[in-house]
Design a protein that fits this description.
It is a single chain. Helices cover 10% and strands 43% of the residues. The protein has 179 residues and is mainly β. The two termini are 41 Å apart. It contains 1 helix and 14 strands; from the N terminus they run αββββββββββββββ.
């Protein structure tokens, strides 16, 4: 009649098992700041995101990737990587453009990491600012996995964009080991 028949010892043993299993598999994220930049206009430019670690979780990444701006994944495993950046068209740009960002692992684009947006011209009622956001997954099999956040153009215009912080909200790339 609604009475729990599990003994206190069994309940304690089950709780200890669950706590040990969950704590062994749960990782907290490492969060890195994506630096602001002005007048980016070169296809496949690596954005700098290896200088300021906002949160040092238990995922074990380092700001020492293979190339400048890249983040190194230290331990083998499966990772969830999320980036969020704000971009705007600087004054003087006269052509609309399709800007894209994606992640690369050791120089190879990560499937599913592409995000693009159509940017109009700067000025009133033009829509010259937006954000790019994506969550992707990568399997790091060795200790030399280096992740880059890259910006480019899908339409070949290679105009110019700024990475900026609207209202001082930081642009970030987050790494969380999931297995």
């Amino acid at each position: 009649t609604g009475v729990d028949t599990v003994s206190a010892a069994t309940d304690a043993a089950n709780k200890a098992y669950v706590d040990a299993t969950v704590s062994a598999a749960a990782y907290t994220p490492d969060i890195w700041q994506v630096n602001t930049a002005s007048d980016l206009n070169t296809q496949d430019t690596t954005l700098i995101c290896d200088t300021v670690r906002i949160r040092n979780g238990s995922t074990n990444t380092a700001g020492s990737g293979t190339n400048a701006g890249e983040i190194a994944i230290i331990d083998a495993g499966t990772y969830e990587i999320t980036y969020s950046i704000s971009i705007k068209v600087p004054a003087g740009v006269t052509t609309r453009q399709v800007v894209a960002t994606y992640l690369a692992s050791n120089g190879t684009p990560i499937p599913g990491s592409l995000n693009s947006t159509y940017l109009r011209l700067p000025g009133s009622n033009q829509g010259g600012a937006t954000s790019l956001f994506n969550t992707s997954y990568v399997v790091a099999g060795t200790e030399d996995t280096s992740i880059a956040l890259i910006i480019g153009w899908l339409d070949g215009t290679n105009q110019s964009v700024d990475i900026y912080e609207p209202g001082s909200i930081q642009n970030t790339i987050t790494f969380r080991k999931i297995s």
